[in-house]
Write a structure and sequence with these properties.
- This protein has 479 residues and is mainly alpha-helical.
- It has 2 domains: 408 residues, Growth Hormone, Chain: A (Up-down Bundle), CATH 1.20.1250.20; 58 residues.
- 80% of the residues lie in helices and 0% in strands.
- It contains 19 helices and no strands.
- The radius of gyration is 21 Å and the shape is globular.
């Protein structure tokens, strides 16, 4: 049995992957005005700086999860971190918006190989229910904390004037962290069992990547181009490709092939409901951080540095409520998350009605703090709910599916809700923020509905038995 101390040390090391990957989603938000000037970008190109990263991230997450199963999770984690650190430096060296978007795409792609290993490590290292809940709680806390750290760092670094432009430090900061993580991984993280009898589903990867690109790109560039025919054509193509992808995966599974995803996982009812909740929660989570960062600066006239500092209080409250939730959920279950949803509804509604030029600073901090506290009750525990009943032999596949949903949701949040926000900005930033918050409220309601529909769960061993019984059968079964 693995030494308990080493087990938690390994967790801390591999948590650096979600920490860095999420920081690099949100560190851009507050720095957007500065980066936009630095590379002479349009609003659409700046949306792509965020969404392009998420697109590269989402497109290969399932492949990244399977790569860990095939080559060993430590090896894939190490080289994924190496590629991410290198890509970060290339982002900092970019001279044009095109160069930045290309390097951000590769940065997201490298993140897609290192992050799923973290979730898979948790599934493998922590078999005890309570320990796994704590480990997933730490993972969720890392995600939320990284988002806030990103906002604060983005504001601080973009206002910093050294021998290079401050916004470039937004990317270069990953270099020392990446080097330390690579050393710690080599020294302290142990390799997991490999499953080299399987082969990669290259055609499945190609279909899924094309489908995601066909969905995300027109949602961002289509709006800025006035919604030409090609944008609608790509959206229709994305739907057809997603349908074909699922059909392709079912055929490969029934023929004893090696599909990119194991569609039997979608027979777990609470896994499906958890994924829908994850989809809409991460849409609103990512979009809110973008909307609030831009509105604080452009709508309320707050500097980049000061707007970044506004995220400190919600970050602290997020950590506090996340720790509370990890303990309370054992006793009260989904009711903890439902309380968080109610807090989010109230916080967003009050922001929509009260955030106006000349608003009191304490009111801004208070309402953002309420958002942070409510978000901490929901976000970390969603991961535990989505993966709670997944058997350990499906850890890599489940981690890839979950992470793909999470990052696709984030990209959709930036694309759709961010698109609504920037569209109405022509009528003023307050109007834009008003409509953006309405979109967030709709997402919160859907998350609450999914939590209400959440069925009574069973153990992972019972789930494994059901999945084994259904192997090769096309019909779905509620578990």
């Amino acid at each position: 049995m693995k030494d308990l101390k080493n087990k938690w040390l390994e967790l801390i090391i591999v948590l650096s992957a979600p920490l860095l990957s999420v920081i690099d989603v949100f560190i851009i938000n507050v720095a957007i005005p500065t980066i936009k000037k630095g590379v002479h970008a349009t609003d659409g190109e700046m949306q792509l700086v965020i969404a392009g990263y998420l697109l590269g991230y989402a497109a290969f997450l399932i492949t990244g999860g399977r790569a860990g199963d095939h080559f060993g999770r430590k090896k894939v984690f190490f080289w994924g971190m190496f590629a991410f650190t290198l890509a970060s430096c290339l982002c900092g060296l970019s001279q044009t918006a095109f160069q930045l978007n290309i390097t951000r795409l590769f940065q997201g792609l490298s993140a897609s190989f290192m992050v799923p290993q973290t979730i898979a490590f948790i599934q493998i290292l922590f078999t005890d229910t309570k320990e796994r809940a704590k480990a997933f709680g730490l993972y969720g806390i890392t995600l939320g904390t990284a988002a806030v750290i990103g906002q604060v760092l983005g504001g601080y670094l973009s206002d910093t004037h050294w021998f290079i432009e401050g916004w470039r430090l937004v990317f270069f900061i990953n270099l020392p962290i990446g080097i330390v993580t690579l050393w710690a991984t080599h020294k302290y993280v142990t390799e997991t069992a490999k499953h080299q009898s399987t082969k990669f589903d290259y055609t499945g990867t190609l279909i899924l990547t094309t489908a995601l690109f066909s969905l995300i790109y027109p949602l961002i560039q289509g709006r800025e181009a006035g919604w030409p025919l090609w944008s609608f054509g790509l959206l229709i193509l994305s739907v057809l490709l997603f349908v074909f992808f699922i059909y392709n995966q079912k055929i490969k599974l029934s023929g004893n092939g090696n599909p990119l995803i194991d569609v039997r996982l979608f027979k777990i009812k609470d896994f499906n409901i958890g994924l829908v909740a994850v989809l809409f929660h991460f849409m609103l989570h990512t979009a809110y951080l973008l909307l609030s960062a831009v509105y604080l600066q452009n709508g309320l006239g707050i500097s980049a540095l000061d707007s970044g500092l506004y995220f400190i209080v919600p970050g602290i409250l997020f950590i506090i409520s996340s720790v509370m939730a990890s303990r309370l959920i054992i006793k009260f279950g989904k009711r903890v998350l439902q309380v968080g949803v109610i807090i989010l509804l109230v916080a967003f509604y009050l922001q929509m009605t009260l955030w106006k030029p000349g608003i009191n600073t304490l009111l801004i901090v208070g309402l953002m703090g309420a958002w942070g506290f409510g978000n901490g009750l929901v976000l970390p525990s969603l991961l535990n709910i989505a993966l709670k009943n997944v058997p350990s032999q499906y850890a890599g596949a489940a981690a890839g599916i979950y992470s793909t949903f999470q990052q696709t949701a984030s990209a959709l949040g930036v694309s759709i809700i961010g698109g609504v926000f920037f569209y109405f900005s022509k009528d003023g930033w307050q109007t834009a923020y008003h409509f953006g918050i309405i979109c967030l409220l709709i997402c919160v309601v859907i998350v609450g509905l999914m939590l209400q529909l959440l069925p009574k769960t069973k153990t992972a061993s019972e789930t494994a038995t059901k999945l084994s019984e259904q192997n090769g059968k096309p019909e779905t079964v509620d578990i």
